[in-house]
Protein 1
Amino acid sequence: MKVIAAMSGGVDSAVAAARAVEAGHEVIGVHLALAANPQKYRSGARGCCTIEDSHDARRAADVIGIPFYIWDMAEEFHDGVVEDFLAEYAAGRTPNPCLRCNEKIKFAAVLDRARAMGFDGVVTGHYARTQIGPHGKTLHRAVDHSKDQSYVLSVLTREQIDGAIFPLGDTTKVDIRAEAESRGLAVAQKPDSHDICFVPSGDNAGWLRDRLGSDVGPIVDQSGTKIGEHKGAYTYTIGQRKGLGLTVPTADGSPRFVLKIEPVTNTVIVGAREDLAITSMRGERPVWCGPPASDLPQRGFVQIRAHGAALECTYFIENNQLVATLDIPLLGLATGQAMVIYDGDRVVGSATICETA
Amino acid sequence: MSSIYVDHAATTPMVEAAMKAMVNQLSELGNPSSLHSHGRATRKTLEDAREIIAKEVGCLPTEVIFTASGTEANNIALKGLYWAGRAVGKNVVVISAIEHHAILDPAHWLSAHEGAEVIEIPVTRNGVIDLDFLMKLVSDRSSEIAVISVMHANNETGVVQPVAEVIKIARDIPVHSDAVQSFKKTELSFSDLGVTALTLSAHKIGGPLGIGALILRRTMEIPSLLHGGGQEREIRSGTLNAPSIVAFAAAAKSDVYRREEIMQIRDRFISGIQKAMPDALINGIEANRLPGIVNVTFPRTQSDTLLLLMDNAGVSCSTGSACSAGVHEASHVLLAMGHTPATAQSSLRFSFGAASTQADCDFVLSVLPDVIAWGRAANSV
């Protein structure tokens, strides 16, 4: 096949591109320039589209021996990922921008452009696997569960998964680094990226405050009594305990947790740990990553964080929304995150959580 | 797959005579500034080379100042002439809007760090500087202008600029001209032209990389950028790079660049494009241009996509414009000619050189229609 390898400048995408070449594909390396004003250098593990990263990607492509280009996707990234991130926070939800980037950039803008140019698919360094079965191509967890990225890929439609190649899903990260070393790739020991790439300072709350303002508002308990003040409701996350700055103690001295964020009134509602418990969740815009689920409701597992546990559940569709009811209650779930349904290691589908109960 | 090189304006193969001269000189020992026999031998060879280049560009040997690049020569000229002017109360730097970044960026640096007032001369739709604008500017502010810098021919479009007219208008204001693309490609004589300073680069004419020259009128004294041994008229310091300089001279003396033939290849290339893609726009087509450069706008495409597809089809060409962090910027040259950012970013530069053949031209024409079709498809998703 003729494929585009998305190369971030990190070790994973470099090895993925090399493996795609070895698998017999005709591979062209592409680095996505996502920041309108890129930083010159990486600072630690943060960010992944500095000028230094694009040099690392180019160097890896040269060592592997494939053509290399830089595609400017800054506008698409800003509109589809950064703006969405801000809008979600402003609406009191907690978005996952990596997921949005896979949905709108890597497997949409890039895959669409690649296909229009006569390429068959996109290779990335994600830790996930695909399998071809009687119902077509399906998405599965990586062998290395500690690195598994199937969660952030769960927004991909069947058509997108058809054009996706994940060469690293069968290998552990330790082995990928060793392989990079033996392939002579200088990025073998480059630190992993963490955090949000477009918040280079790592100060998520400060970054949001600069853009959304910092309107002071009340922190109230469940009875509505004001017990503190915050500087921007969107900087809080459901289940958050630290950094509330509350001076009025509870009667029994137990800690308080963020239960709810109300953007319209700019109010943060706090309460006891047990009040965080939920037994069902509801997600909008459901996507099936393989064959659409049938004979619903079905038993399965739902995962609500990138590296969270898979929780036993029953799931079904109601009013075009994906609903999962949990066998065991869960403490603290933010809307805006993805609920991803698994059948064993297979990703069935996902939706964006809009309601919990 | 065959691989066709049509990016000679970026760099072009070294001519054989230059390679030989360079290799021979690499085995010679002696710093040309040394007084002993070894030094004198290198000095002799080097001064022979200086005389050859002086003859080729129509200046006195003493007017040739060797530099490590065209960029360095441009920096010495623009900053030096500005500082010389500022010492007598002149603070204005005039450049054309279509200068290479090696002039644009020093000019903007002078503005940001030295307080210079930078004025850009606009260009017409054909990419030629607006002489009326310059005439009015000089008549209004003659006593304030430290330097005027107008390139001899543009590197993106090949459009030759009316430098002789600029000099007439400028009268006693120092004029610098970046002639990196013009040298050996079109008529160029330092003395006939009457410029104060002229920039040359070896690797654009079949010489080696890393050597250039500033031709500076012998009576002109300017402050230097690099301080040290003062080897080149106290204006440029650094041990002279004899192997590169002799190779530069060998390339300057060579007559491998056949202007008429290359112009014919270029014109057949343009006809081929116009026939296959009637909506393609040849930038600067009505102006006097260098023989080898063709700049084409292909509406509804993106140049970075086209470059990938051309490369994949075995053709090395260019957008001609600068990159910022690897991302192609809309060309300031095409924008100055009236393009929108979108049309500026759907343009490619093809440049033919001494080694180019009609077969090269035919091959590019054979892959171009498909590449443009793919590029349009990719641009519409």
Protein 2
Amino acid sequence: MKFGVISFPGSCDDVDARKACERVGEAVALWHADHDLAGVDVVVIPGGFSYGDYLRAGAIARFAPIMTEVIEFARQGGYVMGICNGFQVCCEAGLLPGALLTNVARRFVCRQVTLELVNAETPFTRGLDPEELLSIPVKHTTGRYYAPPELLARLHAGGQVVLRYAPGENPNGSLDDIAGVINEQGNVFGLMPHPEHAVDMLTGSADGLGLFRSLAGALV
Amino acid sequence: MARALPALGFDGVSDVRVGRLIELEVSDPARLPEMCERLLANPLIEDYEVLVERDGGG
């Protein structure tokens, strides 16, 4: 079970993501300018500000050399997890439906949020107790999930909404409190909260570890 | 902004919209819409309008 965590110029959570992956398997660093996925089983696109996010969050990273490989890898059923900026990159790349808009308050938000698991039948969430709430931090300015009405209805109907902010916890104005979605094929998952920052009680919660553990279990 | 302007005495502001202006020098303006679709705008969440000024008029 081998995880690969991509580093773009401006990524800042790549090291934490790698350390989280190392708790459940092997983890290697992947470089944005390479065309090589090093034979990994899972690609993690981490949080940060890829290429400065100057045009739109994720818009430039989506065309990074390594993304050609990631898109092909995902097409063939490979597991991809996009966290925060990684979620934005996946949306820009067309790997995930919808888009992330500026927070409704137009401010950076950084806090612990409570999440509900909506779909516990994905490779990313299978190891989690569907009844249990998760406590995981968010930190972003562009995290308001948006999908046009028809698409949104399809996502709900198809079980593609995986994580939701618990009532009163929505930090950014996301439609229907959506915090994480999966693609139709069920192998690409994006979320705004940072599970890699919640893998040890030392930082207040280890609830994020379950997502990495599920994935490791899915591949055994 | 909609709150700050009246606070400064600028009454009569009923709506505020902030957009983005991208200036490009190109040899083939016909390709601008394609550039917008593929990179400069995300059509799912953004509208765009192309204005062409010839001979470095901008």
